[in-house]
Amino acid sequence: PFAQRRVERSLPPLASRLCFAWETVPGEPHKLQVQRVFNSESPLAVGDRIIAVNGLPIETPDMLETVALRSETMLPLTIERPGFKEKLDLEVPLSGNPVHLGLSWREDPVEPQAVYITRVVPHSPAAKAGFALNDRIYSVDGNTFAGRDELLIRVQSLLAENAPLIRFEVESRGIIRQVQVPLTPTHAPGRDATL
Length: 195
Description:
The chain is an alpha+beta fold. It contains four helices and eleven strands; from the N terminus they run H-E-E-E-E-H-E-E-E-E-H-E-H-E-E. A hairpin with a 2-residue loop joins strand 3 (49-53) and strand 4 (56-57). The chain is elongated and about 60 Å long. The model is unreliable at 186-194 (pLDDT under 50).
């Protein structure tokens, strides 16, 4: 058990790509209010209320993080600013690289034809599909793989082809299941950089 815990050590969480802190507006669930701005180059100001992201109205609070994950370097926002009657359309800079799948994995030296999950990025397609730390992947789109590098190449190829979804055969706590990860770029198109 000690060796297993050491080998299956999870990766630290990724930092948010958003350079501002926000909270939901009480009584207005489709608006998010900016609380702090961490990037001096950002056009956002404290008190701004975000009403749309990438041209889509805010449906849930996690929509902002979901769209930010997949966007390239800038995030289009529509805001209401105190003292202004008109809505403003802004381009907000993002930190880090786009994340289109939301998984990191390692190869198990004892079982080289499987990998185990070391990170699941919150709000990512993989997280929404139900992946968890230490899940094991045995196949992708019905095909087994020889090791982590082959799996990486296959997944990157599917992402490059703009596949609408990727199917994985996954073991979770001894139970084998099929996990479908939808990848339709409904919010932000782009190339995958980090998986």
